[in-house]
Amino acid sequence: MVDEIKKTLQDIVTNIDGLYCITFTDRDGVPLLKVNTEKAPEHVLKPSFISTFCIAIDQGSKLGLGKTNNLICTYNQYQVVQMNKLPLIVTFVANQKCNIGQILALESQLDPIVSSLTLIVSEP
Question: Name one Pfam family in it (predicted).
Fold first, then answer.
């Protein structure tokens, strides 16, 4: 099952120009599944970086903005898109020219994968 999921994710990374990585983690940034190219920056995939997403979504809800679904950060060389699929976080790392709309459009396509991984994580 994990091999099928990895194959699907690898196809997505290959088909979206400029996408370097898709990572599924828990709230604390612990990686559960990762598919990446050789261009994926390791420093962006550290648990400390990914866990800041949970801090940001908590702050947004305290401001009365409601539940945060996605967080998009742009830097000089990279764009990071994080999707709130609690208890999982899905993180995409892409170059600065990647079409973020294509990444956001993947959300419904990734729902079955998120459901499968959530079941695996929640099993005792």
Answer: MAPKK1_Int
> For residue 93, what are the domain limits?
2-117
CATH number reported for the structural domain that contains residue 65 in this entry:
3.30.450.30
Which is nearest to 99 in space by CA: 83, 85, 82, 79?
A: 79
Task: Tell whether the torsion through CA atoms of 20, 26, 28 and 33 is positive or negative.
Answer: negative
Burial pattern 8-18, b for ≥16 Cβ within 10 A else e, equals ebeebbeebeb
Chain-centre distance for alpha carbon 21: 8
Contacting residues for 117 by C-beta, under 8 A, at least 6 apart: 5, 24, 32, 33, 88
Q: pTM for the whole thing?
A: 0.90
Most confident of 3-7, 43-47, 50-54, 119-123: 3-7
Q: What is the number of structural domains in the chain?
A: 1
Strand ranges across the sheet with 88-95 = 31-36, 19-26, 88-95, 78-85, 70-74
